[in-house]
Amino acid sequence: MSKLAVITGGESGIGLASAQLLMAQQYQVVVLGLHENEELSRKNIGFYRCDVSSATEVQQAFHKIVAEYGNIDCLINNAGILSYGTAVDLDESEWDRVMAVNVKGPFLCAKYCIPQMNDNAVIINVASVQSFVAQPFVAAYATSKAAILGLTRSIAIDFAPKVRCVAVCPGTIDTPMLRDAMQQAAEPEAMMEELNASHLTGRIGQPEEVAELIAFLCSNKCGFINGQAIRVDGGLGVNIGGSKN
């Protein structure tokens, strides 16, 4: 019998790549998101419209999923938003919006999913390299991604051995969110060159590369990995800077 995976924010980027890979590995896949697209329906990926920051919508979504598909084996908390601003100039409402999606969302999904999970289930929280290091002007985003590590550890402790919980921490990945951010830059091409150079790989990552790690962690091969944060970041933040010569 195939496993059931639920992915938030699975319409594009890392979430979509994960959905496609898990489908190829014979999982049943359901996406929770705001906008269904042709790619999901073409791949026969289930979809429920859900704002992950709303307790009512999350509770209703998981109720519908279990009624239609049965109990859940994998929850991938991938939905997230990016916001720019320092602790001084960021509006309080924007801070609250980022925390609602990036932190409250994974909490609510875990809250309503865990009671409906099979034994030996796993929750993957998509955090960020910015759970460990940070760039300028992303106070809310960096804080939210650091908070995900605490949530990951707490779920791992509180629900072992029935449910494992692992955080996946990508570096810069070529996603629609990144492309949208680049449009705000004065020189997008120069920004991309800088991003590529900041990774030891000499390039940014692709969604499929993160999806490979997520799928591996969902598999039976990873039963001894729990409560950890795993970086898939091309070596971003390892180099202390300065000349290579």
From TrEMBL:
Keywords assigned by UniProt, alphabetized: NAD, Oxidoreductase
Keyword NAD: yes
CDD domains, sorted: SDR_c (cd05233)
Entry-linked InterPro entries: KR_dom, NAD(P)-bd_dom_sf, Sc_DH/Rdtase_CS, SDR_fam
Stretches assigned to the Ketoreductase domain: 3-162
SUPFAM superfamilies reported for this sequence: NAD(P)-binding Rossmann-fold domains
Record family assignment: Belongs to the short-chain dehydrogenases/reductases (SDR) family.
PANTHER family: DEHYDROGENASES, SHORT CHAIN, ESTRADIOL 17-BETA-DEHYDROGENASE 8-RELATED
UniProt protein name: SDR family oxidoreductase
Species: Thalassotalea fonticola
